[in-house]
Amino acid sequence: MNWIPFELHTHTPHSDGRHSLLEMCREAKKLGLGGIALTDHNTVSGMTEAEAAQEETGVAIVPGMEWTTFYGHMLTLGAPYCEWRDLGPEDIHRGIERVHQAGGIVGIAHPYSLGSPICTGCHWEYTIKDWSDIDYIEVWHEVMPSYKNHNVPAWNLWTSLLNEGYRIPATAGRDWHHSGQDDSWSAFTYIGLPEPDDRYSAESVVQAIRRGRSVISMGPMLHVEALAGDARYFIGDIVEDSAGRLSSMRLLIQVQPFAAAERYGDRMQVTKLVVESNIGELADRPWNEQEAGIELYVPLEGIRWLRLKAMGVLLGGWTTIAFTNPIYVNREQKNETEGETE
Amino acid sequence: MNELLTIEGTLTPLSSKTHITYQFHIDEPPARLAIEFQYSPKVLEDSEISRPLIMEAIGKYVDPSAADLQKQQWERFTPLQNLLTLSVDDPEGFRGSAHRHPPEQRHTLAVGSASPGFIPGVLPAGIWRITISVHCVVTPACTYRLSVYKGRDAE
What we know:
The complex is a heterodimer.
Chain A: E1 2-7, H1 21-31, E2 35-38, H2 50-57, E3 60-68, E4 73-77, H3 92-101, E5 105-108, E6 136-141, H4 151-163, E7 170-173, E8 188-193, H5 202-210, E9 214-217, E10 221-228, E11 231-234, E12 238-241, E13 248-256, E14 268-277, E15 280-286, E16 294-299, E17 305-314, E18 317-324, E19 327-331, H6 334-341
Parallel strand pairs in A: 1-2, 2-3, 5-6, 6-7, 12-19
Antiparallel strand pairs in A: 1-8, 3-4, 4-5, 8-9, 9-18, 10-11, 10-13, 13-16, 14-15, 14-17, 17-18, 17-19
Helix pairs in contact in A: 1-2
Chain B: E1 2-11, E2 18-26, E3 32-40, H1 47-61, H2 64-72, E4 83-90, E5 93-98, E6 104-110, E7 126-136, E8 142-151
Antiparallel strand pairs in B: 1-8, 2-7, 3-6, 3-8, 4-5, 4-7
Helix pairs in contact in B: 1-2
């Protein structure tokens, strides 16, 4: 598996961004990004510059758009322009269907930003009748996302949906409008792809995001593999134990320092790893960079999802530095199984 | 350049979250279309009007635990602004939009080029539509003017 850092929320002068696509890709390369998604507000015309920018910088460009509507902002990836202007606050599923029909996926952008008239349509107000229609949620928005107030309810929304049984991935998005002197740090969405060059295939990137094969991080990459029975599972996978035969799984955890780490120096350091799940924290371990990795046995009873969270020091504060999308468990829970066998 | 259309109108805050679409016919494919669009005012200067609007938005959108603090700092969110954006559809479908803040805009569409936000290509004869998306009007009145021109060459 190749984990390629992407920036999934960007703008250019084709909407209200202040850097050209080429300028942004040059900056992305400096930051160590392997790809970006171009998500201009309500247009896709910026893609006419994509081939040249990708060729010069090597940064992969995934086509997308930010539906910048009156009732919410919705990111689309892997689809051409899809119509939004005829939809009301109760109609979002009709809009999502259009994106899905066109081969794309949809994600709710910054669901808890302030709305109109402070930021028009920025707060999500569409009625969602079926959360399984939503392909991802931008849980971390803007630079220094773990310190932003509006990301707290987004994190809680995501966690409650996971607890309700929805398998909705989280992403990060800088909402990148200009490549100026701003030295604030953005988070990356590492996307797990079978081959390194798969990042140039929008379809592969979209597919990986849709299935939650991704890790959100200010820098370090979190590797989590689950070994259950004789099978090996990665982030985004579903541990299959529908018969409830397995009692536990083994988790292999590693923290890989960010390749371009020199820009962080000692201002960012992971000091603790937490394994969270639908039944609460499963593990809470101190971490230092000298460690090779952690191995944990986790009982499967009651587990429907688990994710790894890395905490630590970030610019003088103590906060979340990275988190994985879940590994899910598909298993008859014990009391249900008993009911069937009686 | 031949003028195809000029429209003026006045909006009030009640027009927030509405679209105004002008539909017109082009009989012969032109080499180029130019669109001029302006609206005014851009900014709501009156803090007597801004303050309750900002307070209402904070009450509606911010978690109660943080709302009081945000309300104390309500002036951070001034000045409130009007936002009208333009999009264009040709007889075949979407031809682009300009989602950005400047209240005076000029856009062109031609076979080989187009202004940022718009998609270059042939300009077919038939019914065209220009839509003004009224994201937000906060001033008591907001006037707009939209003009469309067609040209024989890339002048």
